[in-house]
Amino acid sequence: MPHLLDNPIYNALSSAHHPISLGSKVVKYYFPSFASFAGLKDNSTANFEELYQISEPESFFIVFSIKALEISNQWKLIREINMFQLVYGHQTVPTGDESEFVDLNETHVDEMIALVQLTEPGPFLEKTIDFGNYTGIFENGKLVSMAGHRFNPTPYTEVSAVCTHPNHLGKGYAYNLLREQIKRILAKNEIPFLHVRDDNEGAIKLYQKLGFKIRTSMIAYVIKKA
């Protein structure tokens, strides 16, 4: 039987994120202002055809798959990203110092988008913050590190948008932000997980240090209507 996290986007849009989803029973995608992700029930040719038919012109999506897909000609393949999916394997919060965090809100969105554009941890749009639990660290009044939640295929919650300004690396900010995210997810009796490019060795080592374990490989396909 397939694991829930084999298809995290579709299962998130079928459970906790159903109120912010569009589409059908087998093809679902987020409101465009929230995220550009689409979840297909079985990533079949028929699923991609239905996504093409029901989505708006010029639509742009990111689709995850645990196996390689052949993207049909009606879609332009913009980018293919090889990733690992990691799951937190403990019921306790990693050891570490308690740090001062700021709970980020709509007033911080411009700074959050600027930090994401600089560091490229993944897409971040105007309403992405509504996925919740975004926390940040500021220095001299400027946002220099942040992390938050994204996909929520119950009972799993994804940690996402983990990034630190290049001028502030090596200060332990990412570790402490991740530790806070893990604490918040465990407090909801849910299980933390995340995705990372498989060539990002530094991030993978950090996640493993915190207690995450690689569960599977995952491929992200960035596509646009041809």
From TrEMBL:
Gene3D superfamilies, per database record: 3.40.630.30
InterPro entries: Acyl_CoA_acyltransferase, GCN5-like_dom, GNAT_acetyltra_YdfB-like, GNAT_dom
Keyword hit for Glycosyltransferase: no
Alphabetized CDD domains for the sequence: NAT_SF
Domain N-acetyltransferase: residue ranges: 99-226
This protein's UniProt keywords: Transferase
Gene Ontology molecular-function annotations: acyltransferase activity, transferring groups other than amino-acyl groups
Entry annotated with the keyword Lipid biosynthesis: no
Pfam hit, one: FR47
Signal peptide, first to last residue: none
Protein known as: GNAT family N-acetyltransferase
Source organism per UniProt: Pedobacter frigiditerrae
